[in-house]
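Whiteboard transcription, Tuesday session. T.W. wrote the structure tokens on the left side:
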């Protein structure tokens, strides 16, 4: 599955946040395919549509879809030089699909800051620089070889060389690969390079308890937002300490607690949804009386592939999919209602599944 890695300097609140993630963790019996790894936290993806479908269909059970976070401990200055833990750190980042960088935006004189003071931008730059240097090295290793081929009139090599030069220039200006503009064609070549700084980045501004309701007064958060805008990255504000407390509550208690604070959605839920979208993921539903369930697919996937998310047999034997949009199903109140209104479609092998589709697959065994 796709996973988002959590990184950050020491003492910024990573462990606190990761504990909140594992505490809130999904009931593993429902997700037997999930990795059992202490560094992986599985969370349910909050989705109000699933609750609404449950009300409509009244199934025996409801199963949300899940998302994985991976805890990547131990960034150290000099990681790109391959010293000690550094190499391991970078190889772990190479394996994740998106990066959530926790940034300290809270003051607390009892908690040491590695650089001596709270300075979120300097922290971000420290980590990003290691990633950029590692990418610069990969690009430099490749560029000479490709240049030679390009001179021999190898068209593909010339094409790649041009891309490598632009990347190198960005890296030398401390810019990550995700800020460089590429066409779709070029992007295919770039993807093959397995760069670290092409991965989508999300900054998790960790604020103090006092700032959680209204973070607009927190100047560090403002700084992170401005930085992220230039960095082609997103920002989510959380208070890891409060998230850790919330994660110990059950659903009812959590709702009451958030209401009391005047918050609509917990920071962790926002983080889960943001990371999910950052990875280009979307949700379709199956809605039967036995079970109403949300399933994750990558945007752009066709109906048979989406059926394969449930079971490989569904993909192999795919015939067609009865499909209705979530909105139509809610409007007409039931599958039959939607069918009578002509809103249920029979989609074939080429259908590109849309976020919110409610699907019933027909297949041969
Ligand atoms: P890590 O080294 O990045 O994993 O950081 P930890 O999660 O261990 O947090 C370091 C210290 O900061 C711990 O004492 C946490 O209790 C504290 N901490 C984490 N998040 C917050 C927060 O939002 N507010 C405050 N005041 N302290 C926090």
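and on the right, the sequence the group agreed on:
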């Amino acid at each position: 599955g796709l996973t988002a890695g959590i990184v950050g300097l020491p003492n910024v609140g990573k462990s606190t946040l990761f504990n909140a993630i594992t505490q809130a963790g999904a009931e593993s019996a429902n997700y037997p395919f999930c990795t059992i790894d202490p560094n992986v936290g599985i969370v349910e993806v909050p989705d109000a549509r699933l609750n609404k479908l449950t009300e409509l269909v009244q199934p025996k059970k409801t199963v949300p879809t899940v998302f994985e976070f991976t805890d990547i401990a131990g960034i150290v200055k000099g990681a790109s030089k391959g010293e000690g833990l550094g190499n391991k750190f970078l190889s772990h980042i190479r394996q994740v699909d998106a990066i959530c960088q926790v940034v300290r935006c809270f003051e607390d004189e009892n908690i040491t800051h590695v650089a001596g003071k709270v300075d979120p931008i300097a922290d971000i730059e420290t980590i990003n620089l290691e990633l950029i240097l590692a990418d610069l090295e990969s690009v430099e290793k490749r560029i000479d070889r490709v240049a030679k081929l390009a001179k021999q009139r190898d068209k593909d090599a010339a094409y790649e060389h041009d891309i490598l030069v632009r990347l190198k220039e960005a890296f030398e200006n401390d810019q990550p690969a995700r800020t460089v503009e590429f066409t779709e064609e070029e992007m295919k070549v770039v993807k093959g390079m397995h760069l670290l700084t092409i991965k989508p980045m999300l900054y998790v501004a960790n604020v103090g308890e006092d700032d959680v309701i209204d973070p607009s007064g927190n100047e560090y958060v403002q700084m992170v937002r401005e930085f992220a805008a230039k960095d082609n990255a997103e920002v989510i504000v959380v208070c890891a300490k409060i998230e850790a407390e919330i994660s110990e509550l059950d659903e009812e208690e959590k709702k009451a607690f958030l209401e009391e604070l005047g918050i609509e959605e917990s920071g962790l839920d926002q983080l889960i949804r943001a990371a999910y979208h950052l990875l280009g993921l979307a949700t379709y539903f199956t809605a039967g009386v036995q079970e109403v369930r949300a399933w994750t697919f990558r945007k752009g996937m066709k109906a048979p592939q989406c059926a394969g998310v449930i079971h490989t047999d569904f993909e192999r034997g795919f015939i067609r999919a009865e499909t209705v949009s979530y909105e139509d199903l809610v409007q007409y109140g039931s599958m039959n209602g939607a069918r009578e209104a002509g809103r249920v479609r029979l989609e074939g092998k080429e259908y590109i599944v849309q976020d919110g589709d409610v699907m019933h697959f027909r297949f041969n065994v």
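Someone added at the bottom: The chain has three domains: 3-112+200-278, 131-191, 300-363.
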